[in-house]
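pls design
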C-alpha cells in the first residue's frame, strides 16, 4: 500500500484526529494510538487497524515512553489545546530535537495562535467563526450544521491527513520534518471555498439563505417525502435533466411546470411535494431508474450497502464493530496499490508489551513499567 513503512503516533482524541489516523492506517501506515490508562469507550471509534499503548503521562517514565516511540516515528498527530503537549514535555521543539525528521501535526479548533486559540469549541463553533454556518439552512429557519462533518472531518481530519502527505513528500527533498498547524475553523472555510468564490454569481446566490439554487431554495434541488415516509433526492439543475424530471413526475406537458425561475420556486415546490407523496420510494426509484434525471432515493445506513451500485463496487465492508454491521471501504480506489484495511479493533493497551519491546526496552524494564502503572496491558495471555 502507498504508506507502508510510515510510522505514526496518534495521541488519542475525539473525531478528527482518529479519522486522520484511520485514513493513514487504511492506506498502509502503521498507527500506534497513545491511550490514557482508563481510555473512554468513545476512543474506539475510527480506530480500525491501529495498535494501542495505554500510558500514564503524569509519570515521567510515561512521558519518556512516548518520547522514545517518537524518535523512530515519521508522524505525530496530537489533538489537544495549544500548550498541553508542551506541559507534558512532548512539545514539537523537544520531539523534533530528538528526531528532526518528525512531522508533528497539531489538529485544533482555532489553530495555534490568535485570540481564540486556547478556547474550547466543537464543530458547530468552528463553522460559526469560519463564516460557513451562516450559509447553511432552510428558508426562515436557523442556520443548520451538517452534523459534525464539515469542520471535524472534512476541514479537520481529512485536511490534516493531506497536510501530512504533503510534508512527507517535501521531506524527501529537504530531509527535514516540520510542524503542521491545522485549524478546523480555517479548514472548514477552505473546503467551502466554492461558497466564498461563487458569492458573486447571481445565478447561485441572489437571495437570502434557503432561497437559492443549491441551498434547498429551488424546487429542482431538494428532497421530497414519499408515500411510505421515505425520501427522494432531486438535483435536476440542468435543463435536460429538468425535462426528464418533469417526465417522471407526469408533468412533461404542463407548461406551468417548465419554469426554473426563482419566482416560481415556492409554487412548484408545493406541487412537487404533493406529487411525490403519491408513490412510495421504491415506486419512484423504478420510475427514474431509466430516466437520467438526477433523481435518487435517500438511503439510510442499513439500505445504502445493499443498493445495486454500491454492491457492484463493493463500496462497503463488513464491519468488526458490533453495532455497525457494515462500514465504508477506503476511498478513492488506487489501481495498483489500493487500500486493504485491517478491520481489527484495538483494546486500550492491547499491544503494550509488543510496542515496548519494539522500542528497545528490555523485558525486565517492561515488567517494571507494568508493575508501576506506567503502562497498562490488556492483551490476553501476554507473558514476559
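designed seq:
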Amino acid at each position: 500500500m502507498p504508506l507502508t513503512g510510515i510510522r505514526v503516533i496518534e495521541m488519542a482524541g475525539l473525531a478528527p484526529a482518529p479519522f486522520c489516523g484511520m485514513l493513514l492506517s487504511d492506506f498502509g501506515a502503521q498507527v500506534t494510538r497513545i491511550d490514557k490508562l482508563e481510555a473512554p469507550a468513545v476512543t474506539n471509534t475510527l480506530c480500525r487497524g491501529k495498535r494501542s499503548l495505554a500510558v500514564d503521562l503524569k509519570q515521567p517514565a510515561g512521558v519518556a515512553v512516548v518520547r522514545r516511540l517518537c524518535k523512530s516515528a515519521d508522524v505525530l498527530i496530537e489533538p489537544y489545546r495549544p500548550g498541553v503537549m508542551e506541559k507534558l514535555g512532548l512539545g514539537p521543539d523537544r520531539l523534533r530535537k530528538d528526531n528532526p525528521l518528525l512531522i508533528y501535526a497539531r489538529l485544533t479548533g482555532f489553530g495555534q495562535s490568535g485570540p481564540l486559540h486556547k478556547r474550547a469549541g466543537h464543530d458547530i463553533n468552528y463553522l460559526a467563526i469560519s463564516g460557513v454556518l451562516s450559509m447553511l439552512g432552510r428558508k426562515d429557519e436557523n442556520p443548520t450544521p451538517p452534523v459534525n462533518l464539515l469542520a471535524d472531518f472534512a476541514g479537520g481530519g481529512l485536511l490534516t491527513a493531506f497536510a501530512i502527505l504533503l510534508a512527507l513528500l517535501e521531506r524527501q527533498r529537504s530531509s527535514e520534518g516540520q510542524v503542521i498547524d491545522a485549524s478546523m475553523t480555517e479548514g472548514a472555510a477552505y473546503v467551502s471555498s466554492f461558497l466564498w468564490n461563487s458569492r458573486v454569481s447571481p445565478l447561485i446566490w441572489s437571495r437570502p439563505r434557503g432561497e437559492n439554487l443549491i441551498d434547498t431554495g429551488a424546487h429542482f434541488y431538494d428532497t421530497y417525502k414519499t408515500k411510505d415516509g421515505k425520501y427522494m433526492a432531486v438535483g435536476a439543475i440542468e435543463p435536460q435533466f429538468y425535462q426528464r424530471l418533469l417526465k417522471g413526475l407526469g408533468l412533461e406537458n404542463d407548461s406551468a411546470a417548465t419554469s426554473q425561475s426563482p419566482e416560481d420556486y415556492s409554487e412548484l415546490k408545493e406541487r412537487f411535494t404533493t406529487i411525490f407523496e403519491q408513490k412510495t420510494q421504491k415506486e419512484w426509484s423504478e420510475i427514474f431508474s431509466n430516466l437520467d434525471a438526477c433523481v435518487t432515493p435517500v438511503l439510510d445506513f442499513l439500505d445504502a450497502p445493499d443498493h445495486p451500485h454500491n454492491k457492484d463496487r463493493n463500496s462497503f465492508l463488513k464491519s468488526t464493530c458490533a453495532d455497525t454491521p457494515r462500514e465504508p471501504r477506503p476511498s478513492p480506489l488506487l489501481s495498483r496499490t489500493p487500500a486493504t484495511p485491517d478491520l481489527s479493533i484495538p483494546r486500550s493497551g492491547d499491544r503494550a508489551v509488543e510496542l515496548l519491546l519494539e522500542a528497545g526496552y528490555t523485558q525486565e524494564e517492561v515488567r517494571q513499567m507494568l508493575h508501576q502503572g506506567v503502562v497498562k496491558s490488556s492483551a490476553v495471555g501476554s507473558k514476559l
